[in-house]
Design goal:
The chain is of the alpha/beta class. The chain has helices spanning 14-29, 67-91, 105-114, 129-134, 166-171, 192-208, 212-217, 229-238, 252-258, 268-277, 293-302, 317-328, 331-344, 349-361, 366-373, and strands spanning 5-9, 33-38, 53-56, 95-98, 118-122, 140-143, 157-159, 185-190, 218-223, 242-246, 261-264, 281-283, 307-309. It is found in: Cell membrane.
Length: 374
């Protein structure tokens, strides 16, 4: 018999849906039924998300200064809140949990107006706009990188970390094995759907600048956009490189586990996965992120010594080549960074987040929950 329904609300991107998915599996293990509220973009995840039902409610973001567009968005939000209210009254969830993105706004507003316990999970070190708008209304906030002190809502924040996929937890069991002189050096490069273009242009040039001895050691995994595939593969062939180049890798967790160095963007999930596995990284925050959240995420890992952060404007191919030359000749430095990254990882984030959900659903305050963790 179910302990009750937990209603999860998430924007329809992987960054919002994946942590919700990890929590959903934990809650189902503990005897809860799970429903998801999202937008139409999340339909691609419907086959994997362990929800009894996925609901789509009207929602909109208010990003325009056009009065007509603003009015239209407000009307859509109002319609969404009415639909969410009816859904909550029908399902009677024990708690509503939001994971960011504008589709979370109607169900969380409806929950707070109906007196249903509610909380948020914020992946990033900088709170997103939807979560920031909802934060004053909810009972608690779980933070991937948010601090428990000094923040605007630190009195209701618990630093749970970001839940990671089971494949990442399995990869974390593999120890970091340094690459020494003459041995293959596994380099993993990826940038996400928005941020991969820069690496597609910079990496081939950087690798061409390396000494032949170092270039022969490199084994590269690089995620590139489909439109850049031909160019990057052509460069790899010209350089006679050992390279796996694709828009997507189903086995990325395993590739990260074998990596001697990762060069990538610093989205919250990426930084969390690198930390849990424990791999040294050069983090290049996506410069066009609206809230500069990637820079803050990167700084959190760099503070532990697990990563080096370089802004894109300062990362020329020549500098990439210089970095590779130094670290490939200093395996102990990379091993130290790997250990520091792993210390920063939070492999138990999904369990802690599930504990927090159960506590808030049962009527406990954040202060009471914090005391149970001591």
């Amino acid at each position: 018999m179910s302990k009750g329904i937990v209603l999860l609300a998430a924007g329809g991107t992987g960054g919002h849906v994946f942590p919700a998915e990890a929590l959903a599996f934990k809650l189902k293990e503990r005897g809860y039924s799970v429903h998801l509220v999202t937008d139409s973009r999340a339909e691609r995840y419907a086959g994997k998300f362990p929800a009894e039902e996925i609901h789509v409610v009207p929602s909109a973001t208010i990003g325009s200064k056009n009065p007509v567009a603003v009015a239209r968005s407000l009307w859509t939000l109002w319609s969404g809140m009415r639909a969410a209210k009816k859904l909550i009254q029908r399902l009677k969830p024990v708690i509503v949990v939001g994971f960011g993105g504008y589709p979370t706004v109607p169900p969380l507003l409806a929950a707070t107006r109906l007196g249903v316990p509610s909380m948020l999970h914020e992946q990033n070190a900088v709170m997103g706009r939807a979560n920031k708008a909802l934060a004053p209304r909810v009972k608690a906030i779980a933070g991937g990188f948010l601090p428990e002190s000094g923040g605007a809502f630190s009195d209701k924040t618990i630093a749970t970390g970001n839940p990671v996929r089971p494949a990442i937890l399995a990869a974390a069991e593999q120890p970091y094995l340094p690459s020494r002189a003459g041995e293959p050096f596994n380099l993993v490069v990826f940038g996400g759907s928005q941020g991969a273009q820069y690496f597609s242009k910079a990496m081939p040039t950087a690798i061409s600048l390396l000494d032949d001895v170092l270039r022969e050691r490199l084994r590269i995994t690089q995620q590139v956009r489909p439109e850049d595939m031909e160019m990057v593969r052509g460069c790899a062939a010209q350089l006679q490189m050992s390279a796996d180049i694709a828009p997507f890798f189903n086995d990325m967790a395993e590739r990260l586990a074998k990596a001697h160095l990762v060069i990538c963007r610093s989205g919250a999930s990426t930084v969390s996965e690198i930390s849990v596995i424990g791999r040294p990284a050069v983090l290049v925050p996506y410069p066009h992120a609206l809230d500069h959240d990637q820079a803050a995420n990167a700084a959190a890992l760099a503070a532990t010594g697990g990563a080096k952060v370089i802004v894109q404007a300062e990362l020329s191919p020549e500098r990439i080549a210089s970095i590779l030359s130094h670290v490939m000749n200093d395996p102990e430095k990379l091993a130290g960074m790997a250990a520091a990254a792993k210390l920063a990882g939070k492999p138990d984030a999904a369990n802690l987040l599930a504990d927090m959900v159960e506590a808030i659903a049962a009527g406990k305050t954040v202060s009471e929950f914090k005391r149970t963790r001591v």
